[in-house]
Amino acid sequence: RKPRGLRASERSRLASAPSHRPIMTKKIALLTSADFPNGPSSDASLAEELSNAGMEPHYVIWNDPNVAWESFDLMLFRSPWDYHRHFDAFMSFLDAVDKKTKVLNSVPVVKWNIHKGYLADLQQQGIDVIPTAFFPKDESFIVASMDAFLGPERAASWRRDIVVKPSVSADGYRTVHIAPEDWNTPETREFVQNLVRERDVMVQPYLTAGVQHGEYALMFFRGEYSHCIRKRPHNGKQHLPSPSSYSSDSLSLQLIGGAADQDVLNFGARVVRAVRDVLHLSEDTLYCRVDVFQHGRPDLLPDSPLCVSEVELIEPQLFFNVEPASSARFARLVAEFLSSKPDGV
Q: Is-above-0.90 flag for pTM?
C-alpha cells in the first residue's frame, strides 16, 4: 500500500511552522584607528542603534594584523583617521579587505574620494568648488618665488593669501595658511618646495567669508537629506580640525535640521547627484557629507554665492551626537543593505 501524500492543509501548516534553525546575527566591523580603539564618543549612539536593529557591531582597527575580516558580514568606515599617515599601507588594505567582506562606502568610491583631485571632477560637472591648483609630486621641484610657483595672475587674484596642503590629508596634516606678509619669505618657499618634493600638493585661496559666516556640513544617507550642522570657530579664525575635534571647545556646532536654508540644501543635493554621475553609480552611497560655505568672492566664483570645500565619502564625522535620531536612520539603511544583498563578498 502506497503511503498517502500530505493533504493541502497539512502542507500549508508545515510551511508556516516556525523554523528552529538559529538566525545568524550580522557582524559589522566599524573601522577605526589605534587612536580610537572604541570609536569616537560622537558615534556611541550608532553602535547602540546597530545593535537595536539586530546587528552585532565591533570596532576594529584597520591595520590590526590579527583581524579575520572574512568573519564579518560588512565593514563600515568610521574613524580610521590616521590613513593619510600610512597611505600605501591603507591602499593595500583596501584591496585586501574588498576581497573578504562587503564594504561601505565601496572601495572604488573611497579610492576616488581619498585624493582631493575629485574637486576637479566635480567642477567639470558644473559644481562650484573652492578654486584649487594641484601640483603633482616632483622630487626635483624648485620654488624660486611664490609668484612663479602659483603664477603671477593667480597669485594676484588670490590676493597672495592662500592655504597649502597635501592632496591626501586629514586633520590639518601639513596644512599651512600663508598670509600676504609671509608670501615670499625663505621659510615659505622652503616649506612649499619640500612639500611638493614629498607628495601631491593642492593650493587654494584663503576665503575669509567662509571663516566669518561658518561652514555647513550636510549629511545625506542613500541620497536623502538627513541633517545639517553649521560650524563656526569661536575665535573667528580659520580652523583646520581633525574629524574628532568638532567640539564646543574649538567650534560652535549648530544643528540646522530640517530648517536648513533651501539654497544650501539644493546646492548640497546637486553635489550628491554629481558624485553619482562622476562615478557612474547605480545607487547613491550609504553616506555622503557635503561641506558648503558662502565664499564671498564673486570675482572668483560668479555663478553662485556657495561653493564646496569638501565632499566626505570615507570616514566623515556625521554628528550622530548632535542629531541623535540620525543614527537610527543610518542603522536602518545598513540593515536594509544587508538584507538586500546575498551572502558572500
A: no
